[in-house]
Amino acid sequence: MSGTGASAEPLRVAVTGAGGRMGREVIEAARDRDDVAVAVAVNRSPIDPVAGVEVRDADDFPELLAGDAPDGAPDALVDFTGPASAVSYAEACADAGVPMITGTTGFAGGQIDSLHAASDAVPVLKASNFARGVAALRRAVREAAAALPGYDVELTETHHNGKRDAPSGTAKSILGDVEDVRDDLDKRVYGREGDAPRESGEIGVHARRAGDVTGEHEVLFAGNRESIELTHRAGDRGVFAEGALDAAVWIAGRDPGWYDFGDVLDAGGDAPDTGGDA
Ligand SMILES: NC(=O)C1=CN([C@@H]2O[C@H](COP(=O)(O)OP(=O)(O)OC[C@H]3O[C@@H](n4cnc5c(N)ncnc54)[C@H](OP(=O)(O)O)[C@@H]3O)[C@@H](O)[C@H]2O)C=CC1
Ligand SMILES: O=C(O)C1=N[C@H](C(=O)O)C[C@H](O)C1
């Protein structure tokens, strides 16, 4: 889906969190494509250029977004920072009329409301995971959940030891998918300890943090003397970066509103039947 090369001018994207694991990956992925170019990149702490792109001070970002960047305002923002930062960038995008893609996870309820408020003014696309395989996993999970009434469900995610939020944003999206389909599952149990059997209505949620694991999500269904495990493993962060840039290309010029990665895949003709990305 990357690098169509069809358009004359590349989409000019802004990147926030440019010094982070994902921000660096987005800048490097953009360098290898001809349909996008990084117009401006910022990071909270000062850092050296990333893949030849100068990284500016985050405090200057509202002005850069409003048009002080070389060649004027960017066409879209790609954000991988943290929840509070992403909310403030959504507000800046709404003020400047710039569409926003955010892959940031770990939002609390009120912060999601703030993102939604920004989407009244500009297109906002939030996705907990920009891997196409995760969209396929979520579709498979919904089908399995519908086909296996009464089966126990346990979700396990594994990430690198630098990840802050737990469970992962993707895990929360998958839990929402299962709960949409299985009305009887209404109690998330985070880890297990003590002395009691599993109760009906529970979904077990397990978060592991170890080494440099990019990101793994596994959903176990068990019952009727059988079990199924559905698993996605991200091979590297380029998978997420490519998906985020595909989303940026897709969102430019859209009407204000709330979008998810399924909308982007839908436009490509292979929409995942998921419950969106709350
Ligand atoms: N949706 C998806 O597909 C994916 C989502 N993610 C999510 O993306 C987010 C970032 O992950 P990751 O890159 O690993 O995290 P990192 O901690 O490696 O990077 C975050 C970066 O954001 C910077 N930052 C924080 N606040 C601001 C700000 N206000 N302005 C500019 N820069 C800022 C940090 O700078 P400093 O170091 O100076 O604080 C840091 O460089 C997480 O929420 C993660 O869960 C990750 C992978 C895929
Ligand atoms: O922090 C990460 O690394 C990742 N975060 C996302 C999440 O929280 O689901 C997506 C991916 O799993 C990597």
Automatic annotation (TrEMBL):
Reactions catalysed, as given in the entry: (S)-2,3,4,5-tetrahydrodipicolinate + NADP(+) + H2O = (2S,4S)-4-hydroxy-2,3,4,5-tetrahydrodipicolinate + NADPH + H(+); (S)-2,3,4,5-tetrahydrodipicolinate + NAD(+) + H2O = (2S,4S)-4-hydroxy-2,3,4,5-tetrahydrodipicolinate + NADH + H(+)
Keywords on record: Amino-acid biosynthesis, Cytoplasm, Diaminopimelate biosynthesis, Lysine biosynthesis, NAD, NADP, Oxidoreductase
InterPro entries: DapB_C, DapB_N, DapB_N_CS, DHDPR_bac, NAD(P)-bd_dom_sf
Record-linked Gene3D superfamilies: Dihydrodipicolinate Reductase, domain 2 (3.30.360.10), NAD(P)-binding Rossmann-like Domain (3.40.50.720)
Alphabetical list of NCBIfam families matching this protein: dapB
Annotated function: Catalyzes the conversion of 4-hydroxy-tetrahydrodipicolinate (HTPA) to tetrahydrodipicolinate.
Protein name per its UniProtKB record: 4-hydroxy-tetrahydrodipicolinate reductase
Originating organism: Halorubrum laminariae
Gene that this polypeptide is encoded by: dapB
